[in-house]
Amino acid sequence: MVESALKYDPSWENIPSHICGWLEVDLNTVAQNYTLLRDQLPHAQCAAVVKANAYGLGAQPISQRLYIEGCRHFFVAHLDEARALRPLVPDATIYVLTGCLAGTESDFYENNLTPVLNDYAMLDRWVDFGKSKSQVLPAILHMDTGMNRIGFDNHALKKLTESMGALAGINLQGIMSHLACSPDKTHPQNEQQRQLFEQVCKSFPDVPKSLADTAGIYLGESYHYDMVRPGKGLFGLYQAPGLQQAFTLKARIIQVRQASKGETVGYGAQKTLEKDSVLATLGIGYGDGLDRRSSGHSSVLLGQHKASIVGSLSMDYTVIDVTDIPAELYQVGSWAQLTGPDQPLEDLSRQLGTISRELSTRLGNRLYRSEK
Question: Domain extents for the chain?
Fold first, then answer.
C-alpha cells in the first residue's frame, strides 16, 4: 500500500483497492456529543433527531449507538424512516414529524409509531382510527409559533384550545414547536416564539413540552422544557464548545499529472493555469455528493498541507493542485481528506453560502461507508 497522505490508520488496509471515496463515522464521537448535550439539561430529556438517514451519516448504526447510550426518544421526518428504525430501537418512542398522512394510520399502529399531528384533519383521522381499534392512541401536537411551515396555525390553534374535547380521543404525549432562528442567539424571534409557546402551553398544563433543537439548547434553560430535540449537534454539524465533527470524508488519488502554464482544467475550461503545475485527480465528484460550488473555492488536506480544488468538479472526479506539496503526500493510491474534525463541514458550508446539513445529506450511496 502507498503511504497515505493522511496520518496512517491501520483500518485503511481493509478498504478494498477499488474504493475511491470513503465516509467514516466515529460512533464514539456521536456518543460523546450526545452525552455533552444531555449533561446540559438539568431537567429535560434528550431525544435524537435522525431523519434523512441521520443527516446523511447512517441512521442505523448511529441510532443503535445512541440507544446503547440511553436515548429512548427518536425523531424522524417520514414514515419509511420510522419503519426502518423500529427494529433497531425496539422499546424506544419514535416520533414521525410529518405525521400520519391519509391512509397511513395502520402503518403507525402496526409499527408502534407516534405521529406528530400537524392539523385538524390529521387529528380527526387519528382519533377515528383509534376508535376503530377501541383504543386511545398516542400522539404529540405540533403548534406553529412562527416558522409558517408545518403545524397547527394560529386559527387552528385557537379553535383547538376553545374546544379541547377534540383531544379526548388521543393519548396526548406532548406539545412541540420549532424555533426558526435559534442559531442566532440575539434574534428577537427566539423570545417571541418562546412567549407564544408559553401561551399555548397554558392550555395543556400537565402535558410534556418540547421547543429546542440543538441551537435552542444554548439559548438557556427556559427553552428546554421537558424534552430537547438535537440533530446536527449529535454529529458536530453545529459549532459549540466540546462538540466534535463525528465523521471524515476521504478520497483516493487515482492519477497525478504535469500540466503547463496556459493549459486549462476541467469542464468549461474554467481554470487556466498561471504556471507549470502538478495536478492530482481524486476519484470522487458530485455523483458522490460533493457540491459543485466547491470548484475553485475550497481545498483538501494532504497531511498538514492544503491542496486547492481547481477547475469544475465533475460527476466522478475532482482535480487538486499539488504543485507546492511534498511529492510523498500525493502518490497514486494515497488518501486526501475533504472534511473531518480538523476540517469541519461547517467551515466549508459558510464558504459556499449554505449550511452543513445540506452538504452532509447529499453524501451518496457510492461512498464506501464504515464506522469506528
Answer: 10-24+246-371, 27-235
Q: Is the dihedral of CA 131, 77, 147, 189 positive or negative?
A: positive
Tens-digit pLDDT profile for residues 167-218: 889 999 999 999 999 999 999 999 999 999 999 999 999 999 999 999 999 9
* H-helix segments, the chain: 27-38, 51-56, 59-68, 79-85, 105-110, 120-132, 154-162, 188-201, 214-217, 345-352, 356-360
Cβ atoms of residues 22 and 250 within 8 Å:
yes
Cell of 194: 418562546
CATH dotted code for 10-24+246-371: 2.40.37.10
Paired residues of 140 in beta bridges:
116, 174
Decide if 10-24+246-371 and 27-235 have a common fold: no
The neighbouring-strand residues paired with 282 are: 253, 318
CA 233 to CA 244: how far, in whole Å? 9
C-alpha to C-alpha distance for 178 and 181, rounded to whole angstroms: 9
Q: What is the CATH number of domain 27-235?
A: 3.20.20.10
209: its cell numbers? 413540552
The residue assigned the cell 455533552 is: 36
What pairs with residue 293 in β-bridges?
A: none
pLDDT value at residue 4: 43
Angle between helices 27-38 and 59-68 (to 10 degrees): 50
Share of residues in the chain with pLDDT > 70 (%): 97
Q: Which three cell numbers stand for residue 59?
A: 441512521
Catalogue the active-site residues. 51, 267
Question: What's the whole-model pTM score?
Answer: 0.93
